[in-house]
Design a protein that fits this description.
Radius of gyration: 20 Å
Strand content: 15-25%
Structural class: alpha/beta
Number of helices: 7
Distance between the termini: 36 Å
Length: 191
């Protein structure tokens, strides 16, 4: 059960890719023994043809000389159907836009064991798409005491990234992390 097409949407830098990677990490055991877990960055795709080609390349699927994007998408869907349970992460899917919707729904129809997680600024608005809006992390106000600053989501993420335990921070360091989180308005995906 569960949704097979999940779109993680939000503004640039909010952490959609990081969240998609965490989803993949948590689902790794489910897909590792079957078709696997595959990540495809679509940031450089110039259009639908490029996106389909990028997915085929990541999955090492040869499409031949397809006459159209529709033919190539269908060939790729057939290949996906033969892979078994497979999780496909499509990162930065904005560049392809709404053209990707019919392709993804076609792949899901062709490959019943396929699941897709895509990151983008907006949903595809297709049938059976589960959309999750990724919001900025909560950050502490300027007058927050160190204990409150350390409890905020944004400062916790910065601490996790630094690898430094919270109990080893001086108050000034905690305030500096809180100030960084405030400057980024909780958008720490690019920090």
């Amino acid at each position: 059960g569960g949704a097979r097409l999940i779109s993680l949407v939000g503004v640039a830098g909010v952490g959609k890719s990081r969240l998609a990677a965490e989803v993949a990490r948590r689902r790794l055991e489910t897909y590792a023994a079957a078709g696997g877990l595959w990540r495809c960055d679509l940031a450089d795709a110039g259009g639908l043809d490029d996106a389909i080609g990028a997915v085929a390349k990541v999955l090492d699927i040869r499409l031949g000389s397809a006459a159209s994007a529709e033919t190539a998408a269908h060939q790729l869907g057939e290949a996906l159907a033969g892979r078994g349970a497979l999780l496909l992460l499509l990162d930065d899917a904005d560049v392809v836009g709404e053209q990707l919707g019919p392709v993804l729904t076609g792949w899901l129809e062709q490959a019943p064991d396929l699941a897709i997680v895509r990151t983008a600024r907006s949903p595809l608005q297709v049938v059976d798409e589960l959309t999750h809006e990724v919001l900025p992390l909560a950050f502490p106000p300027p007058d927050a005491p160190p204990s409150a600053a350390l409890a905020s989501e944004a400062v916790q993420l910065l601490l996790d990234r630094s690898g430094r335990p919270a109990d080893k921070l001086a108050a000034e360091q905690t305030h500096a992390l809180a100030a960084l989180a405030r400057r980024q308005d909780g958008h720490l995906g690019l920090v």
